[in-house]
Amino acid sequence: MPGLPESSVLRNRDHIEFRLLSDGDDAPFLALSTVEAGSMSWKDSRGPEHRQRLYDNLGIEVPVHAQLQQHTKLVNPVSDKTLRNPPVQTGDGLRMPRGPGFLSATVADCMPVYIWHRKIGEIILLHSGWKGTGILAEALLRYSPRERKEEITVFLGPSIADCCYQVDRERYNLFRASFGGRAVREEEGHYFLSLLQANLGIAEKLEVTSVYYYNPCTCCNPEFGSFRRQGPQKFSSMLALIGYFQ
Ligand SMILES: [Zn+2]
């Protein structure tokens, strides 16, 4: 399960683009905004303006779907409801068939997870933090074992990593029980979680063959918005996007 090759990570001033390997030019567009783009939170008065500027820079002129994220494991299809601004539908995963449009999710230490069905073009975007870890399994169980093996690509994006994701012992134990010893780290009585390893473990268990990641720590790297580093009052929400321009 390799990291995405450096050549497939395209850095721009206000966003990072991730290129998935594809036989043709049919892969969806994947991106994550950086701190430079401004906070994308609906609670931030300038959030809508930051979004529009990013869409303009990316050339996105098609509908962008969003949800009210609440660390659930709900994966919903897009609808008129997910086009409301600010969002009204609760969920932390969105899916849509191939066609003009984008899925969006905000993250600030939580992991954006991008899924692409290479044959039918369906795409899914997940917001996966500690509480919502496992939403990847919810999304993948929609597909048959054969589809997971042959037709699904999973890409795990930047999140807080186990250098910084310190938690209390109880949360550590819960995470360890659910996702195994590889998904946690203990050092001199301090406890840490690895969202990357937890999600790689889920993908492996469900026998997804095509899994990639690019997972620099959002807390260590100031180009990313981070709840832990910037604090609850000032953190910058980043926008994860996957979609088709046409
Ligand atoms: Zn870190």
Pick out its properties.
246 residues, alpha+beta, six-stranded mixed beta sheet, binds zinc ion
Structure commentary:
- By secondary structure, the protein is of the alpha+beta class.
- It has a single domain (6-244), classed as CNF1/YfiH-like putative cysteine hydrolases (4-Layer Sandwich).
- It has a 6-stranded mixed beta sheet with strand order 1-2-3-15-7-4, with no helix packed on it. Strands 5-6-9-8-10-14 form a 6-stranded mixed beta sheet.
- Strand 1 and strand 2 form a beta hairpin.
- The radius of gyration is 17 Å and the shape is globular.
- It is built from 6 helices and 15 strands.
- Bound molecules: zinc ion.
- Zinc ion (ZN) binds next to loops.
Kindly state the mean pLDDT as a whole number? 96
What top-tier CATH class fits best? Alpha Beta
Small-molecule binders here are: zinc ion
Order of helices and strands: EEEHEEEEEEHHEEHEEHEHE
CATH superfamily: CNF1/YfiH-like putative cysteine hydrolases
The CATH architecture would be 4-Layer Sandwich
Distance between the termini: 30 Å
User: Helical content, roughly?
Assistant: 10-25%
- Which structural category fits the helices and strands? alpha+beta
Secondary structure: number of strands: 15
Question: What composes the largest sheet?
Answer: 6 strands, mixed
Strand line-up in the sheet with most strands: 1-2-3-15-7-4
Question: What's the quick description here?
Answer:
The two termini are 30 Å apart.
